[in-house]
Structures are given as structure tokens and as C-alpha cells.
Amino acid sequence: MPDSTPPQRGFGQMDLGLTDTRPKRVTLSPGATLLRGFALDQAEELWRALTPVLHAAPLRRMLTPGGRQMSVAMTSCGTWGWITDQTGYRYTRTDPTTQAPWPTMPRLLFQLASRSAAAAGFEGFKPNACLINRYEAGTRMTAHQDKDEGDITQPIVSVSLGLPILFLWGGLQRTTRPHPILLEHGDVLVWGGKARLHYHGVKPLEQGVHPLTGPTRFNLTFRYVAQAVS
Ligand code: MD3
Ligand code: FE
Fold first, then answer.
1. What is the spatial distance between Cα 114 and Cα 110, in angstroms, rounded to a whole number?
2. Which protein residues are within 6 Å of ligand 1, measured from CB?
3. Do the Cβ atoms of 226 and 149 come closer than 8 Å?
4. Measuring from atom 22 of ligand 1, which residue has the nearest CA?
5. Rounded distance, CA 97 to CA 45, Å?
6. What are phi and psi of 110, to 5 degrees?
7. Please, where are the H alpha helices in the chain?
8. Helix, strand, coil: what percent of the chain each, to 5?
């Protein structure tokens, strides 16, 4: 006789009312897809892959064209890296800090970005730039558009690691009131089509400690840069 009694549940499976029932995939607006936890099972590997990149191209707080120091610390890997200084925003092939080419984009990162884009309907995404943003308590990013890539038909893929943050999703005009979206460790966002030129930013990071990243949040944004100078 087959035994139909359900298996005894250990504490490991006990439902304490904490089961995450939120949808794994959310369309925020046409072209913008949140893939909750898409990078979760690779988070530690991603973190390990970042270590040599951060060694070769140290995080730095750059100056905006207006002369203000950004609160986000940044660096890049891939063929192109995004920089800002008093002369403007642009992508370069070399790191102005080390004057060396930006570190190679680790295969694991490239593949995650490409798989994420495909999962959101953008097949064949081949990012050639990865901007790495580090947030500490109080770090924020004011509303902006990403339009330095020279090809807005290509999506941008963003991967969140570490402490959670409130992302602010705006409209095509800076004045549209943004709506807040919680971004957590392992979440992936894909922005393409109509969403590609929406204004966006993040609220100041709240204090906390994450088991992988400590008191910080990292965000990786994968881009395809078509035309650039220097
Ligand atoms: C929507 N980074 O690096 S990620 C950025 O959390 C940037 O570090 C934020 O905005 C961060 O430029 C937000 C989500 C994101 C990234 C790029 C986008 C949303 C986007 C490009 C177009 C539209
Ligand atoms: Fe952005």
C-alpha cells in the first residue's frame, strides 16, 4: 500500500508565514521587467568574480560636470567604462585612474546579463560595458537618464547585490513623480524599448549589514556602447 501521509515537516520547511508570495517577474512598464531573485543562486560567484576587477580598477567617487563629487563610488569592466569629470559624462576604453584598459568583463557577468535580457524578451544582448556602483549608508543617486551609450535600441540590465534600496522609477520627463520599487539582493531589472529613456534614481541607502557585501549595496549595470570617444 502506498503511504499517503505527507512527509513530516522539519523546522526547515515550517511555514512561519514568511513565504515570499510576490511574483518573480513583474512588468513595471512596457519594456521594463523586474526579475526578482534571478541572480540569487549565483550571487556568491558574482561577488567572487568582482574581487579581481575591483583590484585592477578601484572604486572611486567621480566629479560631475557641475563639480560635485558623486556619493556613489564607481568603476567599470568590459571594453568601455563610464566616467564623469568636469568636462562631462562619457565612455572610455581606459581607466583614467590607472591609465590601463578597463578589466575584462568576467564571463559569468556577461552570461548572466545576456540570459537576463533574453528572459525579458531581448535576445542576443551582448554587453560591452559593466558599470559597478557601490552604495554605503546615505549614498543616493538623483534622477537621471542613461543616454551616453549611443544605441538606445539595446537594453540595460541591472543586478542588485547586498543591502536593499528603494529605486525610484520615473517617466520620460524629470518632473513625473517617480514611484518607489524595493530592489533586493539578487534582483535583476531589464530596461529596454520605451522604458530605456525613463528618468530613474535611488533613495539614500539605509544602514545595515548584509552577509555577502557587509554595510554596502552593489549594483551592476550592463550596457552595449555603440559609439564613444577616447
Ligand atoms: C532605467 N543605477 O547606474 S539600477 C545607473 O541602483 C543607475 O545603481 C541605479 O541608474 C543603481 O545608471 C539604478 C536600475 C536602472 C539602471 C539603468 C537604467 C534603471 C534604468 C537605464 C534606463 C532606465
Ligand atoms: Fe541610470
1. 6
2. 131, 133, 141, 146, 156, 158, 167, 189, 191, 195-196, 198, 200, 202, 219, 221
3. yes
4. 196
5. 27
6. -55, -45
7. 43-56, 107-119
8. 15, 35, 50
- 64 DSSP assignment: P
* Beta carbons of 141 and 199 less than 8 angstroms apart: no
Best mutation site among 149, 198, 217, 219 for ligand 1, i.e. most ligand atoms within 8 A of its Cβ?
219
Kindly state the cell numbers that stand for 195.
522604458
Contacts for 74 with CB less than 8 Å, ≥ 6 apart? 59, 60, 61, 62, 82, 131, 132, 133, 134
The alpha carbon torsion through 143, 149, 152, 153 (nearest 10 deg) reads: -140
- Residue 17 — pLDDT band, cuts 50, 70, 90? confident
Rounded mean pLDDT, 161-180: 96
Q: Which helix (H) or strand (E) holds 26?
A: strand 25-29
pLDDT > 90? residue 44: yes
Which residue minimizes the CA distance to atom 10 of ligand 1?
201
Q: Which three cell numbers stand for residue 181?
A: 520599487
| pLDDT tens-digit series, residues 106-148 | 999 999 999 999 999 999 999 999 999 999 999 999 999 999 9
Ligand with the closest atom to the CA of 32? 1
pTM (predicted TM-score): 0.93
d(CA 87, CA 105): 26
